[in-house]
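[DERIVE C-ALPHA CELLS]
===
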Amino acid sequence: MATPLRVSLLATFMVAALAIGMNAAQAAEVKVMAANAVREAYRELVSAFEKSSGHRVDTIWGGSGGIAKRVRGGEVADIVIIAAPNIDKLILEGKLVKGSRADFATSGVGIAVRTGLPRPDVSSAEALRKTVLAADSVAYSSGPSGTYVADLFRKMGIADQIRHKVRQPASGVQIGELLARGEADLGFQQVSELLQVTGIVYLGPLPAEIQNITVYAAGLHAAAPAPEAARALMKFLTAPEAGPIIRKIGMDAAGN
C-alpha cells in the first residue's frame, strides 16, 4: 500500500507532468548512471516519476570513481549522478553540460561491524582510533568515503600500523556486503550504503568532530539522447517533495 507521503509526491508530479504536456505518446527512455550511495531513495523517486511522466528510466549502478571513468571513456547516458566533485570535473572536461549540475543529496560516513562481533566504542575520535587499532581487519571503499577515511587514518598517525589489515575493494563494491561475507570485521562507507545491508550491525556515523559530508549531484550528459526527459527527471529528483524520501534512508536532501 502506498504511504501518504508517496501518494502526495506522486500527485504533485502528476500535476506538474500534465502542466508541461507529458503523456505516454511523448514517452522517452532515460538512461542514468548513478552511485550506489543514492540507490534506495532514487529507486522510490524514479518509480513515482515513471508513473507520473510516462517515461521509462534505465539505471546503471556503480561507484563514483568507476562511473566517472566510464563517462571519460566515452560511455553515454542521459544523466550522471555521482559525488559532486566528479560532476564538476566532468563538466570542465566537456563530458557533461555546463550549468547542468543539480545537487540531489548529502551523506556522511558511517561505521559498521559484521553481525556476531562485539559492538566497539566509536563515540569519539580517540575511541574510534583505538577501535581501528584493535580490529583484526578494516575495510573502506574506493569512493569519496574511502578517500576521506584513508586520509583520516593518516592524520591520526595509524595508517602505517594498520596497513597490513586494510581491505579496499574496487569502485562500486559494497563494504557492508564484504563485512557480511566475513571478509572484514570493521567497515566504513556512506551511511546510506550501510543501513540497507543485512548481516552487519550499523554502529552510527563518524563522530561529529571528524565527520565528512559528501554531496551527490546530477549532471546532464553532453550527448544525452533524451535531454528533455532527462531534465524533467533531474527536476523531479531535486524538488522539495523529494526531501522526506531522501532523509528516510540516512541522507539529507541537498537543495531543501
Observations:
- The chain has two domains: 4-106+215-253, 107-210.
- The beta strands are 29-35, 56-62, 79-83, 102-114, 138-140, 166-167, 186-190, 200-205, 213-220, 252-253.
- Residues 14-25 have pLDDT under 50 and may be disordered.
